[in-house]
Amino acid sequence: MATGSAFYSLAASFDFSVLVLLGVFLLTALRQVGSFRLQIWQVMSGGAAAVLLAGKISPGDALRAINPDVMLFLFGMFVVGEGLNRSGYLGVLAGRLFGKARSVDQLVLILLFSTGILSSLLMNDTLAIMGTPLVLDLSRKYGISPKLLLLALAFGVTTGSVMSPIGNPQNLLIAVEGGISNPFLVFFRMLGLPTLINLFVVYAVLKLFFPSEFGKGRLEHAEVRLKDPELARVSRLALGLLLGMVFFKLAACSFYPALDFGLTWIALLSALPLLCSRKREEILRNIDWQTLAFFASMFVLMECVWDSGFFQALVEASGLDPTSLPTIFVLSIGLSQLISNVPFVALYLPAMEASGISIVQVMALAAGSTIAGNFLVLGAASNVIIIQNAEKRGFSISFLEFARFGCLITVLNSFIYLFLLNGF
After folding, report:
1. E strands in 268-406
2. Which of 61, 90, 211, 416 is the most buried (most CB within 10 A)?
3. Residues 287 and 75 sit within 8 Å (Cβ to Cβ)
4. What angle do CA 101, 396, 370 make, to 5 degrees?
5. Are 304 and 51 in contact (CB under 8 A)?
6. What is the pTM (predicted TM-score) of this model?
């Protein structure tokens, strides 16, 4: 009887906004309407416009649905990333790091582990913003497939961000709402080892699918010079502010919680030197406004879908034990593709708490909702940032191409996290 009621509730909650979301999902996969090729931001913006025109959300509610912290964080990081790239300073830093690589194997391993570990400190979206122009530069410099390096970046930042409470927004939500007393210690202790193993798994899968790229000869390095020394000085200051505030936040979270501050302030204060520089107009013209449009539209559409109650009813109708580790992974990976991982965590964490949860189950939710980003393009915001930035520069990865690698990587990731979490 209860099951029948749950399915009735599921059917009743299926409305126009859910249909629009499915249309967005389909168009993102196809990316083609007749002879017109769609970009991801155009598809999502069309979905938001559809629910607005249909009256499913009022203009006022749509504005309130857009998370200003996320938008300002991305804006600030786009400014810093553009300054570092335009000045050539990012290329100089990359030359120092990747100049040690003697083969494609070494370069991909350095890329995976450097971006993975840094994403656990700087948040995966930050590394996606800064890393995309960097890997496309490496692709041109060494004659390596841009798809290989873009995929390594996408899977590296997503996987690496699992092991930190500030690696991604959903982990931050779990750390705050999940009642974890010392989140940095808990995340690194329980998720550090499986995350490092999974970065090797990503390397193995990429090597399996790109044998000709890994078979290339010794890499030849050339000196990298600054493009704009004046802008590089300001960009170096911006990067120093960014890193300094991140480490101050880490210390504050662990030892002085009263001094903690939001990630938005880190991004905006880091961008301030560039916004006050003589090159600010040039930088503002070239930051990724399209990805900002994608996020604003996504917030509007997801608010409609959330209000429909469809996915809440779907979890209830499944009849699964919400605290079972396999269930947590299956639902995290599956539903994060449709409603994104942050709304999913916001929905699922209270359902788990109502049934009584342990720290292992909370960590499973963090791992599952994060590696959901390795499964399909829409599973993580960082994927969208990377693909949008790459398309601005003439490169692209299709929905199906990403899924071809991502499905296998996600399955392998899940088994490793499940196996090692069961040991706690």
Report:
1. none
2. 90
3. yes
4. 75
5. yes
6. 0.80
**Residue 148: phi, psi to the nearest 5?**
-60, -50
Judging by beta carbons within 10 Å of its beta carbon (0-12, 13-18, 19+), is residue 187 exposed, middle or buried?
A: buried
Per-residue 3-state assignment (H helix, E strand, C coil) for the chain: CHHHHHHHHHHHHCCHHHHHHHHHHHHHHHCEECCEECCHHHHHHHHHHHHHHCCCCCHHHHHHHCCHHHHHHHHHHHHHHHHHHHHCHHHHHHHHHHCCCCCHHHHHHHHHHHHHHHHHHHCHHHHHHHHHHHHHHHHHHHCCCHHHHHHHHHHHHHHHHHHCCCCCHHHHHHHHHCCCCCHHHHHHHHHHHHHHHHHHHHHHHHHHHCHHHHCCCCCCCCCCCCCCHHHHHHHHHHHHHHHHHHHHHHHHHHHCHHHCCCHHHHHHHHHHHHHCCCCHHHHHHHCCHHHHHHHHHHHHHHHHHHHHCHHHHHHHHHCCCCCCHHHHHHHHHHHHHHHCHHHHHHHHHHHHHHHCCCHHHHHHHHHHHHHHHHCCHHHCHHHHHHHHHHHHCCCCCCHHHHHHHHHHHHHHHHHHHHHHHCCC
pLDDT tens-digit profile, the chain (424 residues): 455 565 555 555 567 888 898 888 788 777 655 566 778 788 889 999 999 999 989 999 999 988 888 788 878 888 988 888 888 887 788 778 788 888 899 999 999 999 999 888 777 887 888 889 889 988 888 888 999 999 999 999 999 999 988 788 788 778 766 667 777 788 999 999 999 999 999 999 999 999 988 877 777 766 777 888 899 999 999 989 988 887 887 777 667 777 767 767 888 999 999 999 999 999 999 888 887 888 889 888 888 887 887 777 776 776 677 778 898 899 899 888 877 777 778 777 776 776 667 889 899 999 999 999 999 887 888 888 898 888 888 888 888 889 999 999 999 999 999 999 987 7
Alpha helices in 340-398 (DSSP H): 341-355, 359-371, 381-392
Q: N- to C-terminal Cα distance for the chain? A: 37
By residue count, the chain amounts to 424
